[in-house]
Sequence to fold (911 residues):
Amino acid sequence: MRPKNVPEPEELSKIDHKPPLFESWMDKKPEFKPGFYCYGAKAKNIAAVGMPNPRDWSPTDEDWKLPENWKEIFLNGMKERLEKYRSFKLFMDICVRCGACADKCHYFIGSGDPKNMPVLRAELLRSVYRKYFTTGGKLFGKLAGARELTFDVLKEIWYYLYQCSECRRCSLFCPYGIDTAEITILGRELTNLLGLNTDWIQASVANCYRTGNHIGLQPHAYKDMIEFLCDECEEVTGIRPQPQFNKKGAEILFVTPSGDVFADPGTYTCMGYLLLFHYLQEEYGFDITWSTYASEGGNFGYFTSHEMAKRLHAKIYMEAKRLGVKWILGGECGHMWRLLNQYIDTFNGPPDYLEEPVSPITGTKFEHAKGHKIVHIVEFTADLIRHNKLKLDPSRNDHLVLTFHDSCNPARGMGFFEEPRYVIKSVCRNFYEMPSNTIREQTFCCGSGAGLNAGENMELRMRGGLPRANAVKYVHEKYGVNMMACICAIDRAALPVLMQYWVPEVDITGVHELVGNALVFKNEKKRTTDLRGNPFVGAEEEQGDAV
Amino acid sequence: MNFLVGLIFSAIVAIVVLLVPWIGVGVLHLYTIFGIVVPYLAILIFLIGMILRVIDWGRSPVPFRIPTTAGQQWSFPWIKHSWIENPKDSKGVIVRMALEVLCFRSLFRNVRLEYRRIENLPKVAFEWEKWLWMAAIAFHYSFLVIFLRHFRFFTNPIPSFVKIIEKLDGFFQAGVLPIPGLTIPEVYITDLLLLAAVTYLLLRRLYIPQVRYVSLPSDYFPLFLILGIGTTGVLMRYFLRVDVTKVKELAFGLFKFHPHVPDGIGTIFFIHLFFVCTLIAYIPFSKICHMAGIFLSPTRNLSNNSRFKRHINPWDNKPAWEYPGMVHTYEEYEEEFRDVMIEAGIPVEKMPEKKEEEKPEQEQ
Fold:
């Protein structure tokens, strides 16, 4: 479905990337454009996790109902973070404004708004930093690039911090490695000291805290959803997976983003997981459990504050400990994997109650995961395929011409490039890469990451996703690509809408959906369609012959 | 404050920097101040300022391991690990940092957005753009060579590396025709490169709309200073010759802490020296401190090893559940959902004993 309330592509693509000659960005007041920002966090969702200043508010309100001493809170928060994070302090000081980052940001490319250039997004905070924390700024004010923290400045900071998807593409090009994601994360922490989150993020945080997953599925409903997907699997393959829930003493705990459980096309990825686990259970006695308590791999706390991220992801280790599993298998998710790679062990480790992960099927020791004890399911499957442990029929994906979208976080926060490609090439026969400066470490964001995947900011999302969509369009026209694979739940939610808008001929899949299609079971029924019910190449004629 | 204000303001300050020694030495003959006090002061400010700056950065810890991974992670032996772009140990980090510091690796990636609309539909393309990288390399290395060449003024005998550098730097002199009527000493290629690169860096700041929009006075000012240093240096070497032996005498005095200013050094030298001193003293308070900052940048100087080696956060080293009220425990969760869990056949820790009155929660 084409998103509503967004101008037509012909209209939207009229983008001017040249800022006005004589305009001064410091003096330009923020203008809140509909379609570019999300609703304000609701009181009940702020209160649910004990965060400050719970009240209902809207970004367009004259009065944001801030505490009397909001300026002091903000500046004290800044001081505290400057002392706690070398990254923050350094990144406030060393930018030379060379402009190398400017045209690397998908939001700048898609909107032309100069304050979406990473350098200027950071300068919004830097100007406040200079005013209150540097001598030059105190003495010379604007001439030293320093600005008073006024309510207008706060609004502007808020508006642009929530137009950054923390994708880190700019940090790749920065000669000093200045990482806007880091600045955005810490900047958002400051806004959260004043109760200024978006509700899309805050509601997800509150849900994750209480029910374990971001849509607030209670345990029975979560199980129901997965049972429903098992029904679907049975319909297509004749095989009914038998997932286990909250099983004590299982060998492995499986944690995936809850988006896979309830939202298309993530659900097909989930069916892929279920079929794979069932296959391994039948063939090799694989023993894995799902958890209703740790039922969210995604971490909406990360879009709020480091502390909230730590609090929410603690459940994964707590549940692994309670169930007494040996190690943890993680599903296909983007920022979840940046967190699992770069944060979880520091946050909540060391998980010395777990064992160093070893594949029970191939005996492969996952040396590189021996600390945090979590293996990516794509690594796990790649290892299975490498050891010929799966019977695969890649021709079942012949109706698909694929490309692969590197999700920002596994790309620039982990370096996860070859494993997914290896799996895709093992289960599919038509695969084409997008242009080299739009993939791997240079990949473009879906435009909806870091909590921006809401409905009300659709125009921003369609703009931010333009560079990605443009590269997809290129391979669609050149090679007939009709399906883009990805390993991120936010991608699977965001990219279908983006494709509908820019390249409607292309659809989105997770990698394990493709695995599920190709997996050959001993006792399966004659399969004629993929997991979505689309016919295999040749299946129709065969049926025709038989009649 | 638009770009013109910024540009004019920093130009005025640079002109003041030019006029102060011109008047101070040329008119007021304050040789001691400009030949001795100012250089000592500048070096003192630089050293103390830079030390304090680095200590200040160093005082803030690195709570998380956040390298920007620009290549394949280390995983299976059959997958090629990108050991420099995504280092797993300090060997990789050292090479990555060396490439970054010596070759400006990240800047080398730079491309330029070429946005077009074809039949009303957008086309995003990226074009070759290595000019910034080339100018940055030319600028920094020329500066380094010129700095090293200046060792001839502080040392006796002149070290051989200085002579070699001079020789290489003057290599192209044969290709440069002397202007008739003037005796021109050998032309150093770095003199020309430095001035050309700095001019380019200034012009691109004014010419490229996005860069112009974000530029602050503190971006123009160092460029003006360096232009001032370069221009006065070139003037001295090729046109307004000063007595090099006397300059050397002054420099020696400064380094041996027996400073005295010999008579007869031209004012142009003091202008040159004052530009240099201003730049040196300005470094710790300005963006030029990136020269030290790059070494501390956590997205570059950390290995991506957090999956197999625990990174410790010095101000928070306990899991969330060891703090009161931070997590929603499984017990609390089961307490809320026990009935529906049992109904759905999900195992629970505690079976309710028939229909008894709820006892107050006793678990810790």
Chain B touches chain A through 108 residues (CB under 8 Å). Residues 318-356 of chain B form one domain.
